[in-house]
User: Which sequence fits this backbone?
């Protein structure tokens, strides 16, 4: 009995295993059939099968890869090393492109003020076009460079997706007077980025405050004395004493001038320069107040960058006044008059005579022994 039961159980298990195997084979065959049908469907059948309504992308799977690429933030124009003379102008520009919104600024260690206690931003001009939201530029212009402007500049950009980039460049500034040898008592001065030897240098910084005396004339400092010697082209032979002159030396004759672009020479030979477009009092008899001379200057030259003398007005005895103007014109107490070469006009009842010699007009105040040349 035991043997028969054992044989019967083994036959049942074998039959069950055969049926299970056949079911698995049929399932696998059905799966392969379905896969084959799927790959044999046309484009229209596939659209109907998935229930879609949009057209398939002809570019295939590569187009899906492009949609996933990240647009990088980059410089269209970065910073670079520039060399300029002190006093010249310079323009620092950088541009970026990338995902909007964009932020762009220039940083320098010694210029501008702290921004949020973190960065020294320079307030340049931002160039942005709403039609091109993925582009931005910033321009920082220095009209007249100074020593403080030298150093490293950094341009920093930020994009809306958090990308950050930085570009740097150095501004090298040179002294235009370096290596220049000047003549007697001359000094080299920086004029708009060019080194020029001149007698017209600043004594406010170079000369100190101690006055000196020589030949009965007091100079505010040795620098002012050196400027006078520079214009004369020779050293003053007399001894130089510290301090102001103690005794007054009567001067029989002296002159002052206004020439060029505001170059003024005083009665004592000292001089200075200034630029302005107004009438200025040039001379006055402070003892009696009977002679006052005014000079008017105005902008001239290309782009009106120069400064020229336009007219001289003289008041005599505070009663009579006349003006000598450009173009050899005379304003005689409000009456316009012209003067020809070689002609002499007598004005104010004989108080003043004005003569023209070539391009020069000479006004003589007869009873004062004073003259004005224009």
Assistant:
């Amino acid at each position: 009995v035991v043997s028969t039961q054992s044989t019967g159980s083994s036959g049942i298990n074998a039959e069950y295993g055969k049926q299970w195997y056949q079911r698995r084979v049929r399932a696998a065959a059905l799966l392969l059939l379905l896969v084959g049908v799927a790959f044999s469907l046309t484009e229209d059948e596939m659209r109907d099968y998935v229930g879609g309504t949009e057209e398939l992308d002809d570019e295939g799977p590569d187009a899906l890869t492009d949609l996933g690429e990240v647009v990088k933030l980059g410089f269209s124009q970065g910073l670079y090393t520039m060399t300029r003379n002190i006093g010249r102008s310079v323009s620092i520009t950088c541009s970026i492109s990338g995902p909007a919104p964009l932020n762009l600024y220039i940083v320098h260690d010694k210029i501008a003020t702290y921004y949020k206690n973190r960065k020294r931003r320079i307030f340049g001009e931002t160039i942005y076009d709403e039609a091109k939201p993925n582009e931005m530029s910033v321009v920082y212009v220095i009209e007249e460079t100074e020593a403080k402007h030298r150093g490293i500049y950094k341009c920093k950009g930020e994009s809306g997706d958090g990308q950050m980039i930085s570009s740097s460049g150095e501004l090298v500034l040179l002294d235009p007077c370096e290596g220049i040898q000047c003549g007697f008592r001359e000094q080299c001065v920086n004029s708009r980025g060019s080194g020029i030897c001149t007698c017209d240098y600043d004594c406010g910084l170079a000369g100190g405050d101690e006055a000196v005396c020589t030949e009965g004339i007091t100079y505010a400092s040795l620098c002012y004395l050196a400027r006078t010697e520079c214009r004369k082209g020779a050293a003053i032979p007399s001894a130089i004493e510290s301090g102001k002159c103690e005794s007054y030396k009567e001067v029989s004759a002296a002159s002052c001038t206004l020439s060029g672009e505001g170059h003024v020479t005083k009665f004592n030979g000292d001089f200075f320069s200034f630029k302005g477009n107004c009438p200025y009092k040039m001379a006055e008899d402070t003892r009696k107040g009977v002679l006052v001379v005014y000079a008017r200057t105005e902008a001239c030259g290309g782009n009106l960058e120069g400064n020229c003398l336009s007219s001289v007005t003289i008041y005599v005895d505070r009663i009579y006044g006349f003006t000598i103007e450009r173009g050899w014109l005379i304003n005689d107490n409000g009456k316009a008059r012209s003067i020809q070469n070689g002609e002499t006009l007598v004005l104010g009842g004989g108080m003043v005579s004005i003569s023209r010699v070539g391009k020069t007009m000479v006004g003589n105040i007869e009873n004062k022994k004073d003259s004005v040349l224009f």
Observations:
- The chain is about 20% helix and 40% strand.
- Residues 2-39 form the longest helix (38 residues).
